[in-house]
Design a protein that fits this description.
By secondary structure, the protein is mainly alpha-helical. It folds into two domains: about 5-70, no CATH class; about 85-125, no CATH class. The protein has six helices and no strands.
Length: about 120
């Protein structure tokens, strides 16, 4: 593979001459490894929504052997709903703080008792 193939894929077009010098210092195996790893890095930057300014220069990527970096594609965690947003979460919080629902008690009443218990527990700390 050629430097032009690498550079055409690399998303940040900056320091082309320096990048080409870095490319030429690599062994043929390293060039192949770098080129093979680049699509995964492109997918990672897209997944992380990395702005181009935060993607290193191509010469830096090559000089530092960044194609060997471990990339973690973690799914973004969904924000947790507050305990009072659903009946299921309310019951879970009730059990957590030691509040048992009363027969005939409605959800707002139970949530008020849970809040009061949480305040008591905080004050004890």
């Amino acid at each position: 593979m050629t430097f032009e193939a690498f550079y055409s894929l690399y998303p940040r077009k900056i320091g082309k001459r320096a990048a080409e010098k870095s490319w030429n210092r690599l062994t043929k195996d390293e060039q192949q490894e770098a080129l093979a790893a680049l699509p995964n890095h492109l997918a990672y930057w897209k997944f992380k929504q990395t702005e181009k300014d935060y993607i290193c220069h191509p010469a830096t990527w090559l000089n530092q052997g960044r194609w060997e970096d471990e990339l973690e594609f973690e799914k973004a965690k969904k924000p947790e709903l507050p305990w009072y947003s659903t009946n299921e979460l309310t019951l879970k919080k009730a059990a957590e703080v030691g509040v048992n629902p009363y027969a005939g008690e409605d959800w707002p009443q139970l949530r008020a008792r849970i809040s009061a218990q949480m305040k008591r527990l905080e004050e004890q700390m």
